[in-house]
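Subject: sequence -> structure tokens, single chain

Hey, anyone have a minute? Need the predicted structure for the following. Not urgent.
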Amino acid sequence: MLRHIVAWNYKDGFTDAENKENAQKVKMELEGLKNHIPEIMEIKVNIEMLPTSNRDIVLDSLFKDEAALAAYQVHPEHQRAAAFVASVTQNRVCVDYYE
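Reply:
Had a minute. Here:
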């Protein structure tokens, strides 16, 4: 199994209330991809970070293999959701590894 983890910070220029609203929408959009993309085995978005964290939003997802991850990445629903995420976040980091 391949674990795909992505983390972001809030984009500058939003209020705390806007960041909270955007984070909820990011969670809804990304977790909702499970209903559209069969390659996703598990997907969870964490938006309640502890003060010791240096990222505001974390996506934790699981795929069968690299081919499944690649199919997810080019899927139109992922592309749509990713465009929204990119509009409200910055400083993206990604870690992919086999479990």
